[in-house]
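Notes to self after the Tuesday call (sharing in case useful).
The group wants a holo model before anyone commits to mutagenesis around the pocket. I volunteered. Ligand is adenosine-3'-5'-diphosphate. Logging inputs and output together so the record is complete.
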Amino acid sequence: VFQAEIGEVEGIPFTKPMCSTWEQVWKFKARPEDLLIATYAKAGTTWTQEIVDMIQQNGDVEKCRRATTYRRHPFLEWSFQDSSAESYSGLELAEAMPSPRTIKTHLPVQLVPPSFWEQNCKIIYVARNAKDNLVSYYHFHRMNKGMPDPGTWEEFMEKFMTGKVLWGSWYDHVKGWWKAKDKHRILYLFYEDMKENPKQEIQKILKFLEKDVNQEVLNKILHNTSFEIMKENPMTNYTKEFQGIMDHSISPFMRKGVVGDWKNYFTVAQNKKFDEDYKKKMADTSLVFRTEL
Ligand code: A3P
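Result:
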């Protein structure tokens, strides 16, 4: 059975295969026309990727179904190889891909390969409120053997609060990218806004990408990037790949797709503790999140 061993890069927990390819990732050669979709894991990456691809394909659903999310948008720093699971190298996929490329990453801002800044690439960052992000991450650890064992809910919450999880601290991640947006071409979006008003957020993405679509195409994008459709779409729901490491019977990748599910997991005491800690960790930022709609 595939078991994720954990190492570290610059103090950020990474899987061992990610650590071993880190030097190449750091030297990655971004191209000026690359688009980077950056998120903390489970913040709505796949959703954003589908919206972007629907825009790039001008609403052509069949073109978007040409390959899985994973193959369309290489996952820059992610790699693994195991006899029982498929092998994957986001780096190799990205290097082999013709321009214009859309690349996915969960890297904290300080670990983004320098070439992305040098080439002034456009970046879309999506952030999700800590509580829902944590719940989603917990279930993802349960269903994905490529991730370390989460332990109990209580234990995982502790790891999340101390940043001892893959890709490091959620708090540092969202704050770091928030700061970076003032200096670089970064569109900073929120999962909660996308849920509340997907049309408005898609229009923000359109403007950022300097694209225009007619009403009919916009409606197609809205429809095909809804949770219900993406959950049934084998090209986005992760059922076609990684069958050796993802077990959707434990928890599907397309799990619930809502804002506020954390209320089903946090006890009153846990919520109090989390809020107190959150206040301290987020005291030095103007970032504000909504935990319900
Ligand atoms: P839940 O586990 O809360 O359901 P990522 O793609 O970054 O791994 O994020 C996965 C999370 O985004 C999951 O959250 C998943 O259900 C949710 N998601 C995926 N597609 C979505 C969509 N079209 N609308 C809303 N949520 C979506």
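Two things stood out.
The longest strand covers residues 122-127.
The CA atoms of residues 39 and 53 lie 17 Å apart.
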